[in-house]
């Protein structure tokens, strides 16, 4: 599941403004964490960025993005460039679905 609105609804009680605010915060967090992942030169910085985005994603119900972050968090350094691509693609898919679901 890319996005679980029922999960987000547990925290927002269907409040559209709150949903939009939380999704906006996730978008900002995704850009910050992806930037940090791209700039990471050591395992601690890499894992911190991936872990932060994983938690934020799961918190709003963007579970596939969270899973991509988990794989990135566990990835060896040689795989970091591909992991960033995977996380970015997962983020794009998550936001596309979130936008579609919340607009309905």
Strand-and-helix sequence, N→C?
HHHHH
| Range of strand content | under 5%
**Any idea what the radius of gyration is?**
14 Å
List the total number of helices.
5
Secondary-structure-based class equals mainly alpha
Mean pLDDT: 96
Q: Indicate the overall shape.
A: elongated
Write the layout of secondary structure elements.
Blueprint: H1 5-12, H2 16-39, H3 43-60, H4 63-74, H5 80-103
Helix pairs in contact: 2-3, 2-5, 3-4, 4-5
Description:
With about 100 residues, the chain is mainly α. The chain contains five helices and no strands. The longest helix is centred in the N-terminal third of the chain and has 24 residues, at about 15-40.
Please give a handful of descriptors for the protein shown.
0% strand; 5 helices; 104 residues; elongated; mainly alpha
